[in-house]
Amino acid sequence: MRLLLFTQAFLPIVGGAERFLDELARRLVERGHDVTVLAARVHGADNHVDAPYQLVRYAKPFSKRFLPRHTVVHLLREHLRSRPD
């Protein structure tokens, strides 16, 4: 199964939700699923994560006013590219 997981905060930011999503994606890959995680790029940090799943980053807009529209564009683009089930 092809899965697309979306989050606005992800590693290298370390918190409970970020660790949970990373672990969930890893376990799904172990079970044979094709997993893509779509996450916002963390400004000023190393955004590389050594993971068995594909990690796609997008840049957040400078203004929170545009965040919903900007995020939807990236989510739709990745949805069309990866064709999740």
Question: What is shown here, in short?
Answer:
The chain has 85 residues and is α/β, with parallel strands linked by helices. The chain is 36% helix and 21% strand.
Strand order of the largest sheet: 1-2-3
Strand proportion: 15-25%
Oligomer: single chain
Give me the Rg, rounded: 13 Å
Largest sheet: 3 strands, parallel
If you average the pLDDT, what whole number results? Answer: 87
Question: What is the helix/strand order?
Answer: EHEEH
Q: What count of helical segments does DSSP give?
A: 2
Question: What does it look like?
Answer:
- With 85 residues, the protein is α/β, with parallel strands linked by helices.
- It has 2 helices and 3 strands; from the N terminus they run βαββα.
- The chain has helices at residues 16-30, 67-82, and strands spanning 2-7, 34-40, 54-58.
- The protein has a 3-stranded parallel sheet with strand order 1-2-3, sandwiched between helices.
- The longest helix has 16 residues, at 67-82.
- The N and C termini lie close together (6 Å).
- The relative contact order is 0.23.
- The mean pLDDT is 87.
